[in-house]
Write a structure and sequence with these properties.
This protein is of the alpha/beta class. It folds into 2 domains: about 70 residues, Ubiquitin-like (UB roll) (Roll), CATH 3.10.20; about 130 residues, Rossmann fold. The chain is about 30% helix and about 25% strand. β10, α6 and β11 form a beta-alpha-beta unit. The protein starts with 9 loop residues before the first helix and ends in a 20-residue tail after the last strand.
Length: about 280
């Protein structure tokens, strides 16, 4: 007697076929993802499109393009564009004396743009016969005078000076604090700034006037009085031997060859204080 053949329900057959198709689809999707990942990895790490081909340095007028590119070994042609550490590059370049800020941008194909913001030379630090160019925060930018016509900062003692360091003595800190607070109309008239002590900050103007500023206290009030007195002297066509704003509520002016203002200190004929 022959075996009886059991007929499979059509719904089960369709279900099995659907399962097989789903498995094949998952396999194809997995293979596609693997190939896509492999292509992405190749593009990121081996594609010539991401090799550094060009380095653009902007704003390094005083630092120099060569010094900027040499400050970090990470900026080299053939390096992978995506693997460059912008933060590390910025940190290394910030160690250059003139560099105040750095921005690193990457763009295809293979271009790295380094935008440098440099510090402005403001004063010449005078230490005996030595001269150093500094900014208004006390950063030493270069040895010698990088720019002519800058006022001198003198009368302070510094143990060691070299490009890249920042002056941190109390005298230099307070003197520069006063200098930063001055309006451009007064800054452009200064020939020297003396700070033998924190209480004896003095400005020497180009016309020979000595401005006794005193300590770096009540700075806005002192600057306001100083500007008013200088404006009045200019309007009257007079030159002062000194202007004393150490006590802003009781300033004193001594015109050349005249006595001091009432209540002020004794007149002086020395236009430049000894540092």
């Amino acid at each position: 007697m022959g075996a009886t053949r059991v007929q499979t329900d059509p719904r089960i057959s369709r279900r099995r076929a659907a399962v097989q198709r789903s498995k094949r689809r998952r396999i194809f999707i997995g293979l596609g993802c693997a190939l896509g990942c492999a292509a992405l990895v190749w593009t990121m790490f081996f594609s010539p499109l991401l090799e550094v081909r060009q380095i653009k340095v902007i704003g390094a007028e005083r630092s120099g393009v060569e010094a900027v590119t040499a400050a970090t070994s990470l900026l080299g042609e053939g390096q992978n564009l995506l693997l460059l550490s912008g933060g590390e590059i910025e940190e290394r370049l910030a160690s250059l004396p003139w560099v105040s800020d750095v921005k690193v941008q990457r763009s295809l194909p293979g271009t790295v743009k380094v935008e440098v913001t440099e510090r402005d030379p403001e004063l010449i630090l005078s230490l005996g016969a030595a001269r150093w160019t500094i900014d208004d925060r006390g950063h030493v930018l270069a040895s010698g005078e990088a720019e002519k016509g800058l006022p001198a900062l003198a009368g302070i003692e510094v143990s060691s000076v070299e490009p890249g360091v920042q002056l941190r003595t109390d005298e230099s800190r307070d003197a520069l604090k006063v200098y930063r607070a001055l309006p451009p109309s007064i800054k452009e008239k200064i020939s020297a700034l003396f700070a033998p002590t924190v209480e004896r900050i003095t400005l020497s103007l180009q016309d020979g006037t000595a401005v006794r500023f005193g300590a770096a206290e009540e700075i806005p009030a002192k600057v306001k009085v100083l500007r008013s007195l200088m404006t009045r002297l200019q309007a009257e066509g007079k030159t002062a031997a000194y202007i004393d704003v150490r006590v802003p509520t009781s300033p004193a002016v001594s015109a050349a060859g005249e006595g001091a203002a009432p209540g002020g200190p004794s007149p002086t004929t020395s236009p430049t204080p000894s540092p």
